[in-house]
Design brief:
Elements (H helix, E strand, L loop, with lengths): L20 H4 L3 E2 L9 E2 L23 H12 L1 H4 L14 E2 L7 H8 L8 H18 L1 E2 L9 H14 L30 E2 L4 H13 L5 H13 L3 E2 L1 E2 L6 E2 L2 E6 L8 H11 L20 H7 L14 H14 L5 E4 L3 H15 L9 E4 L2 E3 L2 E2 L10 H8 L1 H10 L7 E3 L1 H23 L12 H22 L3 H14 L1
Parallel strand pairs: 10-11, 12-14
Antiparallel strand pairs: 1-2, 3-4, 5-6, 7-9, 8-9, 12-13
């Protein structure tokens, strides 16, 4: 908190008293925000004593961890050293969801057969389900914002308790972060530049872009919508490392996830600007870097239609660059990992919406999961690892392509099966042998119009396979495409 300027003095903390946590158990408490007028302070293993006071509000109606602990306290009051009456309060419904009703946590604990607070894996799954369902689909049942959606009420409640002086905002890492010097890292308030993601007008344009864009799956679209719902100010600069300098503040570099959100626009004209990958040698147009002013870039990227008379670049060269950009843009597909949806890919949407006319907005973005190998996570330490180069050496390019396509299409992790790659090699060999046999016997085969019923059935089946295969490729559903092609080959 000192690093975030939340203390009266940044380098001094005054200790008022020292209390053993055990001595507080059973203490009767009051809270302006609670439904019950009085309740008790009780033990819970999952509370982190290193965060804040180590005391948190229990919401057993909607927190699976809290409900599991409450049930455990009731069953083992003597073990925990508490009065059974202290844990006798029933959960109070504070919100309702279409799927789980007014008591989400009890429903999920029963559904996932959670027996105690030690069922960590099931509780983590239940927590994710409960919080997602409550936030996106929940409706408030109590309090000042009764009847409002949780998604909108949450921010209002947060603002209310901060304004009342009951809380203040601070930031912390999502989990433990250790430096290379073995020090625990904290969030510090430093000089920083931010991108104002979430600004209402800009967000509306970003949402319009997303609505017009093909995401290839509802899961990907939901992930993007969730990202645009919560994404706010993002620190877009850093003080060290590799990268481009902030144009208006050279002491900072552009943060890596914020960088390169529209580099694909540069690809459309790069071949005319420089002839080497590093940009040291001028390209065929003979354009120098200092000739590319902001006004020239705006003209090339069709942000303005009038060529600036003061431009250091001739209009014929600018027009050549403008034609290249207008021909190749917008990008038809941007594909990347699902872990970049909440940051880099959402930034890409925001920045395109801000800089380019609608006709140049991205047409589609496809997100994929990570790649498993034989059903297990790839890891060099366990030996379960296969590079693309090694796969080509081991199975060949064709079998590798088919095995990767067959691994899976959606946002979930795909699974590359080595036995499938080996089986593909055999199928390809069988296909080659069959093609050679057909070509050898070609002279003895009949020719002419397809007149019989069986000829028409065969032709129809082949045409249907062609249509379905094309549809699968257009939808980037390569696993489906492989299956359709395989069926048509077997039919043939």
């Amino acid at each position: 908190m000192a690093y975030q300027s939340l203390l009266a003095t940044d380098d001094k903390v005054e200790q008022l008293a020292e209390v053993v946590g055990k001595d507080l158990i059973g203490t009767k408490l009051r809270s302006e925000m609670a439904v019950h007028s009085e309740f008790y302070l009780l033990p819970m293993d999952g509370v982190l004593a290193t965060k804040g006071t180590g005391v948190v509000t229990s919401v057993p109606s909607d927190s699976p961890d809290d409900y599991a602990t409450l049930m455990d306290l009731r069953k083992k009051a003597e073990f925990y050293g508490i009065d059974p009456a202290w844990a006798a309060l029933d959960p109070v419904a504070v919100l309702s969801t279409p799927t789980y009703g007014e008591l989400t946590a009890p429903a999920l604990v029963k559904q996932l057969k959670i027996q105690s607070p030690k069922d960590v894996k099931q509780l983590a799954e239940a927590k994710e389900i409960a919080y997602r369902e409550g936030f996106y689909n929940g409706t408030m049942l109590v309090g000042k914002y009764k009847g409002e959606a949780v998604e909108t009420a949450k921010k209002k409640v947060q603002d209310d308790i901060v304004e009342a002086g009951w809380a203040f905002k601070y930031s912390e890492p999502e989990g433990m972060v250790m430096s290379r010097s073995a020090d625990e890292c904290v969030v510090a308030l430093c000089d920083q530049w931010y991108m104002a993601y979430g600004e209402p007008t800009w967000r509306a344009k970003a949402e319009k872009l997303l609505a017009s864009m093909n995401t290839y799956s509802s899961d990907t679209r939901n992930a993007f919508e969730g990202s645009l719902n919560w994404l706010r100010e993002w620190a877009c600069s850093r003080s060290y490392g590799l990268g481009s300098k902030m144009p208006w503040d050279k002491q900072f570099l552009v943060e890596s996830l914020s960088d390169s959100t529209i580099y694909m626009a540069y690809y459309t004209i790069a071949h005319l600007l420089h002839s080497d990958i590093f940009g040291h040698e001028q390209g065929p147009l003979g354009v120098a870097a200092d000739q590319m002013t902001d006004e020239v870039w705006d003209y090339i990227f069709c942000r303005t239609d009038t060529f600036p008379t003061s431009a250091p670049l001739s209009q014929d060269k600018a027009d050549a660059l403008r034609r290249e950009f207008a021909y190749f843009y917008p990008m038809d597909m941007r594909t990347s990992g699902k872990d970049l949806i909440p940051n880099h890919l959402s930034f890409c949407i925001y920045v395109h919406a801000a800089l380019f006319p609608e006709r140049f907005w991205p047409r589609s973005m496809r997100a994929n999961g990570h790649l498993l190998l034989n059903g297990k996570k790839m890891s060099k330490s366990t030996g379960n690892s296969l590079t693309l180069s090694d796969s080509i050496k081991k199975f060949g390019a064709d079998a590798s392509r088919i095995a990767i396509a067959d691994a899976g299409d959606g946002i979930e992790d795909a699974n590359f099966e080595e036995y499938a790659a080996n089986a593909t090699i055999l199928r390809l060999k069988t296909l080659i042998d069959w093609c050679e046999e057909v070509m050898a016997e070609r002279s003895s085969m009949r020719s002419g119009e397809a007149t019989s019923f069986y000829d028409r059935v065969f032709e129809t089946e082949m045409n249907l396979a062609i249509v379905k295969t094309k549809e699968a490729y257009v939808a980037a559903a390569y696993k489906t495409a492989v299956k359709v092609r395989s069926r048509s080959l077997r039919a043939h």
